[in-house]
Structures are given as C-alpha cells and as structure tokens.
Batch of 2 targets.
Target 1
Amino acid sequence: MTSRPESLDRARQDAGLSQHDLWVRYFALGGMAPSLELEAVCHGAMVATDPDRDRIAHALNERFTELGRNHPVPYSEDSGEPHDPTS
Amino acid sequence: MTRALEFIGSVRVSGDLVVVTLAGEIDVSSAPSLNALLHEATAANARTVVVDMALVSFCDAWGLGKLVATANALRETGGLLSIRAAPYPLRRLFQITGLTEALHVEAATTAEGRLSVDLAAAARQPLTRAVLDAALKLVVVMAQSVMAGADGVSVTLPRQGRLRTVAASNDVVLQMDHDQYDTGQGPCLDAATRGEPFDSPALESERRWPQFVPRARARGIESIMSTPLLSADRPLGALNVYSRAPEALASHEHQWAVQFAREASNVMLATDAIVTADSLDTEIASALHARETIALAQGLVMARQQLSADAAHRFLIDISRRTSRPVLEICQALVSTASPQSSGTASDHQYLMERDR
C-alpha cells in the first residue's frame, strides 16, 4: 500500500463510510474544507495541506478502530508507510 | 429540537498578538463570558486582537455592540481589532450594519465561504431547522437595526400545528406575540393566517382585537405592523414590527418590512418550509460540539507546550493513534481536567497516555 492520494477514497469505501459521513467526521476534527473539496482530495484531484490530510487519515483510522482493525491509512509524516500500532 | 450551541471561548496571548476564539451563539445570555474574554484580551495590552468567529453561529445586536466597543477602546490606545473567519451570515450582518471596516472583517477565503453553505446543505437538506432559526434571527436583528421607528421585530411561524415566535429581537416583542397567541387575536395572527398585511398605526384608536390591544398598550406598545411571509400566495407566517410611539412606522418602514418579509420567506422556502431532518441536525450539532472540544484542547496544548496550532493538532492525533482511543475522548479528558490554576506542563502526554489504563 502506498500513500497515493486515490487510496484515500478506497479506504473510505473500505471503512464503509459515505462521502457525507467522512466529511462530518473530518469537520468534527476541525477541517474547514467543503465536502466537494474533500471528495476531490480523496480522488487525488486536489492536494490537501498536511494538517488536513492528517484529519482525513485520522477520521478514516478512527473508523477502522471502531471496526476492530488497525490504522491502515498513513499520515503525512509516515512517508508512505502504513502505520501499524502493533509493530 | 436542537438547542443552540452554548457559547464558549478562549483567549491566547502571544507577544503582541491576542487571539480570541469564540464558538456558539453570541447574545445577551453570553454576556458574562464574552465580557470576561474581551476584557482579558484587551488587558494583555497587545497591539492586535484577532477574534476568530469561524464557529459562531449567531451574533445579536448586543454582541455587535460589544465588538464595536472593544474595537473603539483598542483604537484609542493605538491597537487594532480584527475579525477572522466569520461565516457568511455574520459577514453579511457586518456588511448590512456597515461594520465591515470598523471591525476589520477579513475577506472570506473561497473555502470558508462555501463551508457555511456546506454546513447548511449537509448533503441532503438545503437547510436544517437550526440553521433556519439562526437565519431568521439574523433577519429580525437586521430589520430592527435598519428601521428607525422599530422597538422590536419578531417572526411568527406555524410549529407543531400552532403559531409560535421563532425569532424575536427582545423580550417585550416576544411577550407581545404571546399575548396574541393567548387571546387568539391580533395583527400577527391575522397576517400569518390570512396572508395580508395588518397595520395599526395608533393602538389608542384601534377597534379590532379588543382583548389584545389593552395588553399591548399596558406593555407600552403604541403601533404595530404585521407583514405576511408568503410562498406564491400561501401564507407561511408573519414578520411583526412593534413601536412604543404612535405613527412611528411610516412608509419607509413599510418598504423595509416588505423586503425583510420577502427575505424571511425566501429563507423558509429554501428549507422546504417544514424541515423534517432532525437527525441531520443532531449529527451536525454533535460534530460541531466535537469540533469545539477539540479546538479547546488544541488551544490548551498550544498554551502549555508552546506549540503551533498544527503541532498541537498533531500532538493530539499522535496520542489518539498510540492509545487507539478517539481523539475526541482524549480532548474531553484534557479539557475536563484543565483548571485555571494548572500550569504549563510537559506531563499532558504522559497523563493522557496512562489515563484509564
């Protein structure tokens, strides 16, 4: 798995979240981008700032935690490697 | 129905800059908190006070006055107050009241401009009822501020099968509306149910509504103008203007009333008049609450650890990752244990990592 931007949308689908669900979670984490921009970032059509990218990653990872899984979505500082808290 | 978000705020001093972050609704009930926050901000003797209003959903005339008074006091000592990230309805309020320059309201970025639309749209519904009520409150505040003869303005709408006041610029007009609902008569009821304007320029000689009029005069009201809110020709409700003086509501006020009634009607139509998406309201309201808590915790971490906003956010996310606990839970723990006495400490990390273990 790489940190290619389009993988964010795959992660969203994998996490069973709608675009709207993800936007609400991202917004709760302090995100300011409107939903269309978030969608564009998830599809790799736009590049997010690092803090915004981390909000999206964290919104997805918290969902994966709820599903009993680890944190597969990398953060900006992870330089492309998925974060595995058990490692 | 979703209650308005409580008002909260914080003050951060960093050298010559003070950042005041406000969230929720600003009205007279938030006076003690807002006064304390602005006092703390000006007492820091910084040259620039930035008021971040990104999470403010409503600001009434009292709140505007308070901001202007603070800006004036700062200017006298060579300082400057500037408003940052105000959502669209607030920027519109600053524009209409001519305060954009006095308050140095920063222009919106495209993203911020569209954010408030997004909040309202929230994917499915054009506007939720909470947003509708906030928009109507804005209409009554604007209406009162431009109508010279008006001592109060309210909006009446049917809710749960009865007419109710959903926005009022002060308690007297709220009481006036209730007097009409109690007696079952009055210009506001007639305008809202019959879809025609009902004006009474001098209550002293008014013969309609015999039970209501004495109550109105007992409260010091001498003239009333009720203008219907209309969808095509169907009445939706009424915009009511009250004055303590007879003949105070002239043709100028009539024109404004018609214009504001049209604006309120448009707001209503944008919500499909009766909004049923209560669950959506709850969802957005709880996201806003989470956001406030996280912002507060972020502010605490910034102050205690001397970190930038982004670094503080990373710090909180990092703890959440390491503990596999939601970042909101981490922030709630941090905020609930914060007290004015707690000093800058490097132990937040340790504490949060070990808590509940």
Note: Residues 110-127, 272-280, 340-346 of chain B have pLDDT under 50 and may be disordered.
Target 2
Amino acid sequence: MSHVALVTGGSRGIGKAIAMRLAGDGHSVAVNYKANATAADEVVDAIIGAGGAAIAFQADVGSGEAVTAMFGEIEERLGRVAILVNNAGITRDDLLLRMSPDAWDDVIQTNLRSVYLCTRAAMRGMLRLKWGRIISVSSVSGISGNPGQANYAASKAAIIGFSKSVAREIGSRSITVNVVAPGFIETDMTEHLGSDVAEEVVRRVALGRLGKPEEIAAAVGYLASDDAAYVTGQTLVVDGGLAL
Amino acid sequence: MDRTEIEAKLTDLLVDELGIERDDITTDAKFEEDLDVDSLGVVELLMALEDNFGVKIPDEEAEQITTVGEAVDLVELKLNA
C-alpha cells in the first residue's frame, strides 16, 4: 500500500536515508528541510531517478505557522500525510554549567516542539484516513544520557513519553506511534567527534562499529509498514548494543 | 440548507462515521454520555462536519458542543454566517 510520507529534516544524514527508504518502499515522500535547499533537491532527484516520487518542502518545523503552511502545501501537492517521520534535530552540546538558555531553548524547540507541532498537524489527516504511522527519531542519549548533551538528551527522552501518550490517545483509530532511538551513526552530526572519541564509542558498542543511516531507515521502514500494525508506543533502540 | 436537512445529514454522519444506532439519535442526546462517543470521536465528528458542510469550526467553538442539537445549531450558524 502506497502512502504519503513526510520526513522532517529529510535532506541530510539519517533523514535522507529514511526518505530514500520510504520512497523505495513505494511511498510518495515529502522531504522537509530548513535551510539547505540544494541538499533537499539532491535527495528528491535521487528518489525520482530511482523511479520514486518526492517533493522538497522548506519549513522551520519548530514554528507553528510554518508547520501549518507546510501541511497545507503537502496535502495540495501530494495528498494527506499518512506516515510522519519526526526526524529534524540539532545539537548544541555543552556542559550544563556552561549551557546558555539559548542553547537549551534552540534544542528543545527544534527537537521537541517540532514533534508536537507536526504530530498534531498530521493527526487530523490520519483520523480522516483512519490509518497512520507516526515515527519519531529519538536517541540513545535520551535513554542512557550523555555528558554535554543535557538539552539534547532531555528533548530525546521527552519524545518517548510524548509518543506513549499519543499512542494511547489514537490507538483505537489504527494509528500507531513509535520511536526509533539510534546510537552512534555515521553522519555529519557525529563526524565532528574526534577519532579518539569515536574509538572510545566503538569500544562500548557490542557490534564493534558505528551504525549506518540506512540501518536506522530500515527500522523506520518496518514501523511504517503493515507488518508493524500491532506495534505502538514502543521505542526501538538501534544502537549496535551500546545501551545494554 | 434548512435545519431539517442539516439534522438529516448529521444523523447520517453519526451512523456512517461513528457507528451510532439511528434510533438513539435525538436532539437532546449527549455525545459522550448518551451516544458513547469518546472525546476523540467528537473531534472526528466535527472534522466530518467541516468536510461535509464546507464550514470551518474553530477548536474553541468545537469544545462547547456536547449534544446533537448543539452541533446542528453550530452548523446552521456557520452556514448562515
């Protein structure tokens, strides 16, 4: 069954892999991006080149007005969003003692407020469709904590509680709400970690390596599929055995 | 569209969308208490009203609706606005 899927922060990293995966599974994909139009267009071109359907949509998903406008545009051009992947996220790492209120607010706004705004916007369409998949990308940081990431970890842990609550609210309408919690994945976001940090991380991973964006996308693809119809309110940790 | 037509269409929506027994639907029937429609069901009904009557019902006004008659009143008001 083919649906309309929206991937927030879909132009790079894990979001890009998720957009490609969902397109490969036959869905029409709305690739949301905030600033990098070139990267978003590349994802769209790659999807279309592979025989899929995708359109890029610019919006700051931390802004209510931008989210409302984007959902209107997606519905007009692709149809109602049946699969929502809340992936957009940023880090502004610092030790808590040095963390500014701005660093806190920015991360909460982009990582958490966006999940609330997009999920609420998507729910109306899903209720009309009487089917829906809401999948949010959390992080192993939100489960185990990580020094320097109090803001990021708080936003990522909050997504889990949010998803469990919404899962209970709308489960009776065949809409599932789940979370994927990646560990250390090879992306721009983890690239700035020094090689010594990366080595240390790898030592703690049972599978002995960093993950690939496609391996997170595979988990999202499963949760979006009909095979996962009876799975809701769950957090699927895809971290190679880091947080055991 | 007059009141009788609105009532008839609303009744059809309640039967078709929310699976309510036609005989239970009266003007005074309360959605949650009498018709066993949960709060999410009321939201769904209001969305169905928007789709079928081409009206826009703001959340603040939607929250005031507890009976079938009130829903008819609101649609009538919106259609004549």
Note: The interface with chain A takes residues 38, 40, 43-44, 47, 51 of chain B (CB under 8 Å).
